[in-house]
Specification:
alpha+beta; Rossmann fold; Elongation Factor Tu (Ef-tu), domain 3; 7-stranded mixed sheet
């Protein structure tokens, strides 16, 4: 019997038993055309058949770590405590980037150490960060190109069965942070960037509501790609169909949309494009 099989049922986090199962969420850039997502689920369920698996998204733009980090962070607060979040957007698979586990007071994050987990980790106090370096918890002979199947999914399965997080790897002092650009404060303006484009073509910016502290919303306007938007509206229907609108979205960030259309197409905008909030004096 392998060491993993010997260890996997010996320790249980407080308040969980194997019979109740655990919730494991999945986020990736795999898409749905190939069998990658199903294979990852199969590995988790092969180790912990009682797990409940929830798909967050598998339509993260390929290799877009920042978009994946934002989507993951938007979701972790809506799941029960001790949910295990398995996230894989991993352009560095097979390189020296580390596979890691972050255990917080509310949830567990598993994935590559490339910034993908970092925004979500801000949502709760971090207890420990682990380098997943114990091959007894991996699949035999892991592939250099499919760590989601051979490293992350087995670790998530063992964690779901009740193996203590501390048993799954070696302690680390920290983890990589997502490269979300800082908002620049100018004399009478804020300058930000588009950091995510959703499937509706809505443009999410790095500007948050708290960045406007000290300014009154009725005294500002927004400019992007030569287009001026006169105000921040309460909802998408505040403008006529086909017109651009600015609003605070459900993630608490400034969003540019086009009513019943795509702001990305309408404004020919993409990630990295500059957006400016101008304050009238």
């Amino acid at each position: 019997m392998s060491k993993a099989r010997k260890n996997e049922g010996t320790a249980r986090p407080a308040g969980r038993s194997e019979t109740t199962g655990a919730i494991v969420t999945l986020l990736s850039d795999f898409g749905e055309r190939d069998g990658f997502v199903g294979i990852v689920k199969g590995v988790v369920l092969g180790i912990c058949p009682t797990a409940t698996i929830v798909d967050l998204s598998h339509e993260v733009p390929p290799q877009d770590v920042t978009s994946g980090a934002l989507i993951l962070a938007s979701a972790v607060g809506y799941f029960p405590e001790r949910t295990i979040h398995l996230a894989v957007v991993d352009p560095g698979v097979g390189t020296t980037r580390r596979p890691i586990l972050i255990e917080t007071d509310r949830f567990v994050l598993i994935g590559p150490d490339n910034g993908l987990l970092s925004v979500a980790a801000n949502a709760a106090p971090v207890r420990r960060v682990l380098h997943l370096d114990r091959p007894e918890y991996f699949s035999p002979s892991p592939s250099h190109t499919f760590h989601a199947r051979d490293v992350f999914a087995p670790v998530a399965g063992h964690c779901a069965r009740g193996v203590e997080c501390a048993s799954l790897g070696s302690a680390l002092d920290g983890f990589a942070r997502a490269s979300i650009p800082e908002v620049r404060r100018l004399e009478a303006a804020l300058e930000g960037q588009v950091i995510h484009v959703d499937r509706f073509g809505n443009l999410m910016c790095n500007i948050r509501r708290e960045d406007l502290t000290g300014f009154r919303e009725p005294e500002l306007s927004i400019s992007i790609g030569g287009v001026q938007i006169a105000e921040i509206s309460p909802h998408y229907s505040a403008v006529r169909e086909g017109k651009p609108v600015a609003l605070w979205n459900s993630w608490g960030r400034l969003e540019i949309a086009v009513r019943n259309g795509s702001a990305s197409r309408h404004l020919r905008a993409r990630n990295g494009d500059r957006i400016q909030v101008n304050f009238r004096r």
